[in-house]
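Recall that a protein's primary structure is simply its ordered list of amino acids. Everything else, from secondary elements to tertiary packing, is in principle encoded there. The following example makes that idea concrete.
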Amino acid sequence: MVNLLDPATVITRMFQAGKYHDMLLYCQKLLEDNPKDLLGLQNIALSLIHLEKFDEAISYCDKVLEIKTIDAYALKNKAYALENLKRYDEAIDCCKMILEISNNDVWTLNSIGLSLNELDRHNEAIEFYDKVLKLDKHDVTALMNKAISLAHLGRNRESIEYYDKAQTCDPSIKEASIAKAQAFQKLGLEDEAFLAAQGVLLKDMDKIKDDAKNNKCTVFHQFCENEFADMESKK
């Protein structure tokens, strides 16, 4: 039976309800009894992050790290807060400390990549996304951000492949189709850009283009015909 008065249970309930200010006050009361209460310190930091008080959140993460030098949870919260303050070099340092105890931590590898992107160090960022993709080839964060890095480097054909992979893994990512279309435009491929903007995957583009050629019509017209036929079949 769950003890509803257990501090961890109370904090979880507040967090799930989005009551971050109440969570902050509750954790502060925990610290009145024990200033080194790790549960209180960790969750004050978490509540402050959600309240977008990032400098204060970092100070509580540091209090945890004074007690427990390598604490992955505190380091992740600190890294996230530093990223929001655009202190990307410091965020990378935090993440590297996490990798010392868990070198395959996907969140951390992606976070380093994101900070390197912000520092315009895209080649280095790609190295970290590749490490993630070796662990999980379907990781959408790594796929999308590797694509973005490649696009920044002017490697548009490669970026298209990774936007497409991200879109295949998660069709709800509208940014992937838009970015893929822009990459096609930079290559001067207007038909492909149009199809990409409609959410068409690479594997389906050739069929539409071939049908348009055989039917002696534009790719736009062929796509519209296909959409109409699909709607009719669902009636």
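The chain has a mean pLDDT of 92. The first helix runs from residue 7 to 16.
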